[in-house]
Amino acid sequence: MQKEVKMITKKIIVDQSYYNDKVKRLGEVIRAGGLVAFPTETVYGLGGNALDKEAAKKIYMAKGRPSDNPLIVHVADISEVSTYVKRILPLEKRLMEAFWPGPLTIVFPKKDIVPMATSGGLRTIAIRCPAHEAARALIRAAGVPIAGPSANISTKPSPTTADAVLHDMDGRIEFVIDGGDSLIGLESTVIAVENGKIIIYRPGGITRDMLEAFAPTELDTAITAEQEHPKAPGMKYRHYAPSAPLTVYAGNIEAVESEILSFANKGKGKFGFFVSQETAEKIPAGNIIFVWGRRGNKKELAHNLFQGLLFFNNHPVDHIIGEGTDGGGIGMAIMNRLTKASGTHIINMN
Ligand code: TXA
Ligand code: MG
C-alpha cells in the first residue's frame, strides 16, 4: 500500500538581494516540476514550469481550478516573448515597452512549445512580465517561463500576502516566497489586440485611459453583459467569494451611508462591514468592521480589497455589508471584483 505523505509548505523570506542562493534553489524546484508561490505587484502567483504539462496539471489540482481556464505565463524580459508566440504586432511591442515590467497581460497566438495544458486548450497564450523583483529573479533562476495563476483556491479571493497564500495552499505546494504585501492588490489587466484595437478581457492594474493613449480601447462585451461568453475563460467562473454572502451599496454617497448604517442597528455580530474610513467612523462601536480605506482613494481601496474580503475568514458574520466606489480609473477593476465577489449583488443607490 502506498503511504500518504502530507506535504508541508515552507515559507521562504527573501531579502532585498533577490538573486541569491535561496532563489536559485527555488528555481530548481520549478525546473524539476514543483510548485512555488511567488509575490508580484498585483497578487501572489502559484508558479510552475509553463513548458511542462505535468506542472500545469499540478497547478490546476492545487487550485481546484477547471482545466479550461488558461494560466498566465510570466517572463522576466520582453526579449523572451518571441520564443513562445507566433507573432508580435508593433502595437503589442509598444504596449510591452510602455507597461512592462508591470500589471499588463497580453494574449498572443502561441507556438507549440507552450503545451495546451498551460493554455487551457486554447491556441493563444497570455503573457506578462511582473514588476516584483523576486518574481523576475525566480523566473531567471528557473530558466523557464513560469505559469502563474493567482495563488488561491478557485472561487476564493486572490492572496496579496504570503500568509493568505498559506491559508489556501498549505500542504498543496512546496514553497511560498514571502515578498511582502502586493503593492497594487488587484490582478493584471488582460488584453488582446484585434484589428488595431485593444480589447480588455479583464480590467486590472492598467486602466482603460492608460491604454487609450496607445490605440482605441474597448471592453470585452461579456464584462458588461453577463450573458455573453467572455474572451477570458476565467471571467465566467464564480470568483473572489468571501466567507459570508456580500451585498455592496454604491452610488449616491449619502444614500449609501444611511443604508449601511441602518444595518448597524439590526443586530450586532450578525453583519460585518466592509466600508470606507468615512463610513466606518459613523458605525457604532462593537460592530465587526473592515476599514477599507479613504473614500475615493482608489489606490488604497485596490490595495486593501482582497485583504478586506479575507478579513471575514477570521471574523465570522452572517452577511457582509459592503460599500462600493465609482467606476473611473482603477475603480472599474475594483467594481468588477466586487461584482463577482458579491455574486452581482450590487445595489445602486440614488
Ligand atoms: O496579476 C495577475 O494577472 C496574476 C499574477 C499572479 O500575475 N495572475 C492571475 O492569474 O490573475 P489568473 O489565472 O488568476 O487569471 C488569469 C486570467 C483568467 O481570467 C484567464 O481566463 C485569462 O487570464 N486568460 C489566461 N490566458 C488567456 C487566453 N489565452 N485567452 C484569454 N484569456 C486568458
Ligand atoms: Mg485568479
From TrEMBL:
E.C. no: 2.7.7.87
Domain YrdC-like, first and last residues per copy: 20-206
Keyword Phosphoprotein on entry: no
PROSITE patterns named in the record: YRDC
Molecular functions (GO terms): ATP binding; double-stranded RNA binding; L-threonylcarbamoyladenylate synthase; tRNA binding
Record-listed L-threonine binding positions: T42, H74, R128, S188
Compartments, record wording: Cytoplasm
Biological processes, Gene Ontology terms: regulation of translational fidelity; tRNA processing
Pfam families with a match to the protein in the record: Sua5_C, Sua5_yciO_yrdC
Enzyme class: transferase
Binding site for ATP: R65, N69, T124, S150, S158, R202, Y240
Catalytic activity annotation: L-threonine + hydrogencarbonate + ATP = L-threonylcarbamoyladenylate + diphosphate + H2O
UniProt-listed InterPro entries: DHBP_synth_RibB-like_a/b_dom (IPR017945), Sua5-like_dom (IPR006070), Sua5/YwlC_C (IPR038385), Sua5_C (IPR005145), T(6)A37_SUA5 (IPR010923), TC-AMP_synthase_SUA5 (IPR050156)
Keyword RNA-binding attached: no
Protein keywords: ATP-binding, Cytoplasm, Nucleotide-binding, Nucleotidyltransferase, Transferase, tRNA processing
GO CC term (a single one): cytoplasm
Family membership noted in the UniProt record: Belongs to the SUA5 family.
Protein purpose: Required for the formation of a threonylcarbamoyl group on adenosine at position 37 (t(6)A37) in tRNAs that read codons beginning with adenine.
NCBIfam families according to UniProt: L-threonylcarbamoyladenylate synthase
Name of this chain's protein: Threonylcarbamoyl-AMP synthase
Organism: Dialister invisus DSM 15470
